[in-house]
Amino acid sequence: MIDGNQHPAKVEPSPALRLAGGAATLMLAMGIGRFAYTPILPLMQADTGLGDAAAGTLAAVNYLGYLLGAIGCGHIHGSRMAWLRASLAASLISTAGMALTTDVIAWGTLRLISGLASAGLFILATAIVLEDTHGAARRAGWHYAGVGLGIALSGVVVMNLPPNLSWRGAWLVLGAIAAALALLAWAGVRPAAHPPTTVAPTTIAPPASRPDALMRMAAAYFLEGAGYIVSATFLVAILKRDPATAAIAPWSWVLVGLAAAPSSLLWTAISRRTGLFTALVAVYVLQAIGIALPALGGGGAAALAGAVLLGGTFIAAVSLTFGLAGQLAPGRTQQSTARLTALYGVGQIAGPLVAGVVAERTGSFAWPLVGAGLLVAMAAALVLAAASSARGDRKR
User: Fold this and answer.
1) Which DSSP string do the residues of 207-252 spell out, in sequence order?
2) Contact predicate 205/330, CB 8 Å
3) pLDDT confidence bin for 207, thresholds 50/70/90
């Protein structure tokens, strides 16, 4: 029995509910709020006459919102939970709202809001769910799986949509699913009652930073942002236009999500054996091949293989790059990852803009895809150069 001066103890979510809530948040933030645009885009273009350049601009606006949101998350004052829940509401409204208009400026506004909300959800939920560092690497893998699961879910919804619903129905159905995910996120994502204690500062000096290697890594990460996003934005629309691949176009996006879901766990395990540099080079090489495959022929098999390679690498590129940033700039991880995120964000904005304009002028996405693949291949070369620079610094 509780007397008038006592309050009931705050019920903590179970570890399973925390992980489920975190994964649900990323399903909503990334799989729906950020990337559902990709499988719905062909329907929007067919019914509204949306051109490739305008489609690329809408994608870039969303990524601009994400970049601004990521920067804003570094300057948040007040309750993280209040900001997280505001982001949940903004993500729901901006998703369902896409069905209510055909005005390009209104779409752009909604995609900007969606990008801002996605950044808030991704960054804040990840910080809250993973703030207890015990078993963090394994739990992070399960948490980040939400991105791939959300992508796969958006693909399945669009693929099974009744013909009479079209693109408006897709946004509304995904808005309803987003509401269910938001309820799970609301229940599971809460700060720990007893956050981990801070470790006392050590008197041992941290290893020296390696600015040359970090600069090459940053350039590689910019190229990755500009390269992978071309395929991640236009893949379904590209395959839909080719009679040889039109039937499998929706499946390609489902495969991207299914390959992305376990990728963080997989590449973390690989990097323990090969080292972070080697693993990241492999990620970029495989991704470059996956991006270019649909443009090089080979029909449906090549398109599906490209989807698997894209999905299996783009989340790993983020986690491995941040892992290397911690090694190359010890003691300055927050600053280095902030700069990397900004460069990646600029690349993501530029990629769809340029690709959409080139595709509209040439009548094909062949050149944008090959160009994007080359950018990621250049990123692999820069990572090799960074590895060589880091080894040279160690020998001095």
Assistant:
1) PPP-HHHHHHHHHHHHHHHHHHHHHHHHHHHHHHHSTTTGGGHHHH
2) no
3) very low
E strands in 96-255: none
**pLDDT on residue 164:** 81
How much is the pLDDT for 329?
75
**Contact status, residue 239 vs residue 44, Cβ threshold 8 Å:** no
Q: Which pLDDT does position 333 carry in this prediction?
A: 60
Q: Any residues with CB less than 8 A from the CB of 172 and at least 6 apart, and which?
A: 96, 99, 165
Of the options 1.10.1240.10, 1.20.1250.20, 3.50.50.60, 1.25.40.10, the CATH number for the domain spanning 206-396:
1.20.1250.20
| CATH architecture label of 13-192 | Up-down Bundle (1.20)
Angle subtended at Cα 229 by Cα 89 and Cα 354, rounded to the nearest 5 degrees: 110
- CB count within 10 Å of CB 86 equals 13
Flag whether pLDDT at 13 surpasses 90. no
Mean pLDDT of the chain: 86
Residue 53: predicted pLDDT: 94
Report which secondary-structure segment, H or E, holds 339: helix 333-362
CB 375 within 8 A of CB 227: yes
